[in-house]
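User: tokens in, sequence out, please.
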């Protein structure tokens, strides 16, 4: 199925940025809980099918944490052949970033550690091979378009509120909404969304 974007916390208060003329810019920060981020990544990775060196590899669970500098993902992996299955925890340390070409959350600066009670698995270099981990990195991506849609709804609501409070004198035309940047914090990911457009005065209302 189509991977879901992580659910967001309630939007913090939008903030207008000073612009010239009748143009406006609006900042709409969205705070995403790391627990929700882990759930979305788990769905994405669980649906993906990995096969490496005649072994089937499946991600059974994902946990997420952060110290504010790195995102740490705990991937519960089941791997093996048809006659032998075993499990291990792969800890993926990474920095999330905005892939502007695809409008997705992606990961870079990856490093890995492995934990398993299975001595044979711990000695299996294939589990932490660059090729397999590159496949995991490639699948650990999430679309941000749903967050843009949420921000667009918030901007539209704000525009309607401004029009109502001005008795229809001011009309806000929201023309563009986009995700501009990501920043990591302890416990959550901050997604900075911006909206821009024009403010129009409804002269017809004044002349009535």
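Assistant: Sequence out:
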């Amino acid at each position: 199925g189509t991977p879901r974007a992580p659910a967001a916390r309630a939007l913090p208060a939008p903030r207008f940025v000073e612009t010239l003329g009748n143009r406006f810019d609006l900042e709409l920060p969205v705070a995403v809980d790391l627990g929700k981020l882990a759930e979305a990544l788990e769905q994405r990775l669980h649906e993906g099918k990995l096969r490496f060196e005649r072994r089937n590899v499946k991600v059974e669970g994902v946990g997420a944490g952060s110290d504010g500098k790195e995102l740490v993902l705990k991937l519960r992996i089941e791997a093996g052949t048809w006659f032998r299955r075993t499990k291990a925890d792969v800890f993926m340390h990474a920095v999330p970033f905005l892939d502007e070409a695809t409008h997705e959350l992606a990961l870079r600066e990856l490093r890995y550690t492995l934990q398993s009670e299975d001595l044979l698995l711990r000695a299996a270099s294939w589990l932490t091979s660059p090729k397999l981990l590159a496949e995991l990195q490639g699948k650990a991506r999430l679309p941000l378009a749903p967050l843009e849609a949420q921000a667009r709804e918030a901007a539209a609501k704000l525009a309607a509120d401004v029009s109502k409070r001005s008795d229809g004198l001011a009309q806000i035309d929201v023309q563009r909404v986009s995700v501009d940047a990501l920043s990591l914090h302890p416990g959550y990911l901050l997604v900075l969304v911006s909206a821009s457009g024009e403010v129009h005065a409804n002269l017809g209302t004044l002349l009535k």
